Amino acid sequence: MAPHAAPEGATSLQRSTRWPGWKYLLAVGIVGYATFPLLYVLSAAFAESGTLTGSTRLFTSFSTKNFAALSDTRYWTWAGNSLEVAVATALGSVLMGAAAAYAFSRFRFRGRRTGLTTLLVIQMFPQMLAFVAIFLLLLTLGEVVPALGLNSKLALICVYLGGALGTNTFLMYGFFNTIPTELDEAARIDGATHAQIYWGIVLRLTTPILAVVALLSFIASFGEFILARVVLTSEKSWTLAVGMFTWVSDQLNANWGTFAAGAVLAALPVLVLFLALQKYIVSGLTAGSVKG
Amino acid sequence: MSSSPLTADATHPDSRERRPRRESPARTFNSTDGYVVKLVLMALVNALGLFIAWSAWTAGSWFLLGGSLVLLAAADWVYFSRRTVPLKYILPGLLFLLVFQIFTMAYTGYVAFTNYGSGHTLTKERAIDALLIQNERRDPEAPSYPLSILRDAEGTLGFAIVDDGSVRVGDAETPLAAAPDATLEGKRITAVPGWDVLALTDLVGDPALLEKVSELRVPVSEDDAAGSIRTQDGSRGAIYRSVLVYDDAADTMTDVETGVVYRPNDRGSFVAEDGTALGVGWRVVVGFENFTKAFTDSAYAGPFAKILVWTFAFAILTVLSSFLVGLLIAGVFNDPRIRGQKVWRTLFILPYAFPAFLSALLWKGMLHSNPDYGIINQLFFFGQRIEWLDDPTLAKLAILGVNLWLSYPYWFLVCTGALQSLPADVVEAATIDGAGPVRIWRAITLPLLLVSTAPLIISSFAFNFNNFTLIYMLTNGRPRFTDTSAPLGHTDILISMVYQISGVAGGRADYGLASALSLLIFVIVGVISVLAFRQTRKLEEML
Fold first, then answer.
1. What is the nearest CA distance from B464 to chain A, expressed in angstroms?
2. Do B366 and A37 touch (CB under 8 A)?
3. Searching chain A, which residue's CA lies closest to the CA of residue B67?
4. Residue B398: which of B426, B364, B424, B440 has the closest Cα?
5. H/E element holding B514?
6. I need a labelling partner for A81 at 20 to 30 A (CA). Which of A209, B16, B17, B286 fits?
7. Distance from C-alpha of B410 to C-alpha of B351, rounded to nearest angstrom
8. What single-letter DSSP state applies at residue B267?
9. A215: Cα within 13 Å, side-chain hemisphere
10. Chain B contacts of A190, Cβ < 8 Å?
């Protein structure tokens, strides 16, 4: 696993810098710590039995029984709901956040500073703290427009989008500021309108940050629990986070095998996306602090 | 990721040969197209807005009507005026922000000062209606009538009864009236013009319909005091009258059977002389009562103090432990001699890329006390039965341990980034001056690192202060406190306490107290964030 010691040629360097063998040992230890729960859930997902373990050895049996069992549950409905909510939230957040960031970055207008300061202050107050008020608001709204009331995925998306400006504007604003304004001016001389500059030039140049914000808000809304639990009241409209919690909230009747299979399927796309785009995500995380 | 700005029109056939005739991307747009798109979008927005306003009008929800009209007018003004260009870009997000964040924050503030909750969910007007309906009694003297259930083309339900050989028909809005055109076979109504007569078998198969039927009341006549027809079984109807009478002028409720008079009090209930209150109340402003309740009410005061302490301890210990571990790993592996940095790094951050709600549930299973299920006890504690999640102290340790696993990768990433951006010349100068590695760490690396990570440490603290998902999924606040009736436990943090007593998930609801506690968290988090603010001076740099 660990590579061999440095080649013998490097004699003069070797005296001052010993081969850091212990660091490889430590690295193996950390990897073990980091991955064993994940290996475990993978092993349990493919295991014959329905419990989480049953044996101290991993991968003793191989069966896709647990994955097949998912279709007897509402798993796929929940997965569909989660995707629907998370994709819509991600798209909406990007559109709204980018538009606002463009305005703050490119136009000088009255109230601009106040606007930015207000956003910064609002950003400090997590939306989830107002879940009681959100519940009561949707309760009232639902009496008038049922599509925007409790138990509506559309309402949940709207609630998430309520936080779109606060969490994302600054991330995008900083990036938008790095795009030289000379480009806008050149286009304006060519007769482009502000909308053409926005859609045709600025958005294309800021694609990396748009992708990061989309991914971060996808991950955040995919795993969000408390608002989803409060808004989505019927089992059919639950998201994975709400639904899978009920599978294992009762220790005695918990069906860990099915849970493990569901967890592997739910985590895999997120895991792959996250790792593929980690370079960009890291910059986003340090600026936005999504999960800590 | 993106290519150079000038190749943005790569689809243009000429773009590859750099001819002088090449057009600006702006010119390839057709500005009338944009205008058409805008008109269509605005037409949709207006249609939606007017629909909501209309629904609010018919439902009598004046606040919603006013709100939707104001927002709609603002949207039309912004998008059809030439003087509001920046607002055109800010408005969509701003509308959502106003309704779903700023309004809800303000509403939280309002609810915190009311007794909104179980028994006090309605306005006074609607509470009176509810009381009149809930206190109905069957009129013992009036006979029961053969009854059929009707439904019209729009789905409105009604009753038809046979009274003295003639058919009378009505629905919730219109009192019973003679229907001479109805056909009668013996005592069974077979057809009523304008209505479908439902068979009893239709009811049996449809619980929702059955419920609607059992809730339906058809007034006997225009006079409210005459009562209304209800049915228990769908085939016979009887007259029900309210035992309570509301006197508009005196604002009192009178029980016609006992003669007791109930008067409204300032707590949102009708109360009799002897202190008995009617079951349904309305919401009123109660001042700071909810705030003092958390400290003085015996059901909450004890748990509240413990939960407050644990919330701080949890947030501080979590941030400290994961920061230190992350920093340590980052420091050790920020070493150019180590091969495969990228691979190691990717493996180290795996816990971070795994969705947190799944990790919390997974650990809950692994920490099960029975070693037959719980892998932790089985693998590391020789099959001992250690009650990781059922002992107050161990449960707290387990939470801290799991959160360490979840969050050290974040700090590893952050610290690695910070270490790599440290100025190399300063370290070099210190080495030349004869400083050893430990000295360099303590005097140079660590202070510089802390400067750049301090704001993140504070925002991570604020995040964990409200880390509901982890607590709720891993322990759900358990083990329970034994000395209180409130559904709270040793590992609850403030936000999960708010969730438990809010009653939004069922059970007894106390929206007022929950909102008051939410406000308290707002304040704590706000103070912490102001600290972060000062630290970063983000504002000056950004504006």
1. 7
2. yes
3. A141
4. B364
5. helix B511-536
6. A209
7. 9
8. T
9. 24
10. 24, 26-27
Q: How far is CA B268 from the centre of its chain?
A: 26
Phi first, then psi, for residue B211 (nearest 5°) are: -65, -40
Q: Is B537 exposed, middle or buried (0-12, 13-18, 19+ CB in 10 A)?
A: exposed
Q: Which of B89, B346, B514 sits opposite A99 (nearest CB)?
A: B89
Beta partners for residue B149, in sequence order: B159, B198
Q: Could you give the percent of chain A with pLDDT greater than 70?
A: 85
Q: Can you read off the two tokens belonging to residue B193?
A: 């013009």
d(CA A224, CA A19): 45
Residue B87 pLDDT: 87
d(CA A261, CA A46): 7
Candidates B158, B216, B162, B217; CA nearest to B189 is B162
Helices of type H across B283-391: 289-296, 298-333, 341-348, 350-353, 356-366, 375-380
Could you tell me if B490 and B482 are in contact, meaning their C-beta atoms sit under 8 angstroms apart? no
- The pair of structure tokens assigned to B37 is 């798109």
pTM for the model: 0.81
Residue B436 DSSP SS3: coil
Q: Phi first, then psi: give them for residue B263, nearest 5 degrees.
A: -110, 150
Dump pLDDT digits (tens) for A153-186.
999 999 999 988 888 888 888 888 888 888 888 9
**Measured between alpha carbons, how far is residue A7 from residues A11, B282, B340 in Å?**
9, 82, 16
DSSP H or E run through B182: none
Query: Which residue type occupies B15?
Result: S
d(CA B468, CA B466): 6
How many Å apart are CA B493 and CA B315, to the nearest integer? 10
Return the residue matching tokens 């005061």.
B301
Which residue's structure tokens are 């013998």? A8
DSSP of B270-304: EE-TTS-B-S--B--B-TTHHHHHHHH-HHHHHHH
Helix (H) or strand (E) holding B255: strand B252-255
Write out pLDDT tens, residues B309-363: 999 999 999 999 999 999 999 988 887 788 888 888 888 988 988 999 999 998 9
Assess whether the previous peptide bond of B479 is cis (omega < 30° from 0).
yes
Q: Quote the CA–CA distance of B349 and A43 in Å, as a whole number.
A: 20
Tell me how far apart the alpha carbons of residues B393 and B387 are, in angstroms, rounded to a whole number: 10
pLDDT band at B7, cuts 50/70/90? very low
Higher-confidence residue: B262 or A134?
A134
Which pLDDT tens digit goes with each residue over B131-178? Answer: 877 777 777 777 788 888 888 877 788 888 888 778 888 888 888 888
Task: Verify whether the Cβ–Cβ distance A205 to B337 is below 8 Å.
Answer: no
State which amino acid sits at residue B446.
Answer: L
Pairwise pLDDT comparison (B461 vs B267), residue with the higher score: B461
Report whether pLDDT(B396) > 60.
yes
Which residue from A minimizes the CA distance to B469? A225
Provide the pLDDT confidence category of residue A52 given band limits of 50, 70 and 90.
low
| Predicted pLDDT of residue B31 | 56
Q: Are B151 and B195 in contact (CB under 8 A)?
A: yes
Tokens representing residue B227 in the block: 């009562």
Of A27, A103, A206, the CB nearest to B333: A27
C-alpha span between A72 and A52 (Å, rounded): 19
